[in-house]
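Morning run. Coffee first, then this:
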Amino acid sequence: MMNKLHGIIFAYLSNPDLRELTQNRNTCSIPYGGRYRVIDFMLSNMVNAGMSDVGLIVDANYQSLLDHVGSGKDWDLSRKHGGLRILPPFGYSGRREGVYRGRMDALAGVRSYLQYIRQDYVVLAGGDLAVNLPLNDIFEAHMRNDADITAVCTSRPLGSPKNCDYFTIGAGGRITDVLVHPPIAQGCESLEVYILSKQLLLSLVDHCAAHNIPSFSTGVLQGMVGQLKICPYVFDGYAARLQSVAGYFARSMDLLDPAVRADLFAPERPVRTKDRSDPSTYYGPEAKSINSLVADGCIIEGEVENSILFRGVRVEKGAKVSGCVLMQGTTIQAGAVLKYAITDKNVRVNPGRMLMGHNTYPLSIAKNEIV
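And here it is:
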């Protein structure tokens, strides 16, 4: 049944509210959870549902994403026919300067790719959501409901309303109203994952291109809610939306809760990532590590508490790290104290420095900085 599905991931968004975290990359390739990138979750969802063909729609600033996904080998998507395809915006005649204005704009940009999809059904999803979805069950519900579009949503509000869509579910289990970026949250929040047939998708892309409608939310969901049978699939498991620096920090700290980890890294649907063979982490004789996630290849000689350390992080003797997210290659030198901070890759904090953010407003240090 699953070879009927084709995955399209929108991997072109770069949220300006993420400031330093998206200076050198787009939102999908932000490191998350000690050894993953955000894109890993949606790629893994699709592979776990038996999909063998996935297209990544990219725009600007995608070098970091390409370095990470490569040929797709780590997700078993490196194939002679199909597999993982990177879809840059080349040769799109309707393209204006700057990034895509919305999902329908992006789909119009890769229409020639959509035309030759081998499967009957398509899953459209954002690459900036960390969630472990049972896509098999969602597809079965789509077929059972005889829906035109199945929209995955949650009854637990996650994001800020100015960046989210909300559904009103009426009698008969259909979506009857769609609110796009309202001032306050109402109804079920969209996770922006949709299943529909390839034929319907092509006709919607052509309709929206002809009417200069760039947005899927306003053009398709809101504009056609009366004409199409749009059914919700309510998923109330853990999902992380990364829409601001404070939001990224809060969602990272969620992972220190074992219940959240069990939900997001469900063993029956493993999350895959780029394979790296690092040595085990070394803990010095005076090292302390309390309630923290520590990846391979770290050297810890100081104290680490309530923190997430990516591969290759070094915490020297006498250094104290509390409530922090330290990305790959960060070095906290002897005697430095760091609280409520996010360090991007290869940051160095000099000896004896004291840096403190706040739980609700963490300090964010850009890639390769020396503080």
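The chain is about 20% helix and 25% strand. Good start to the day.
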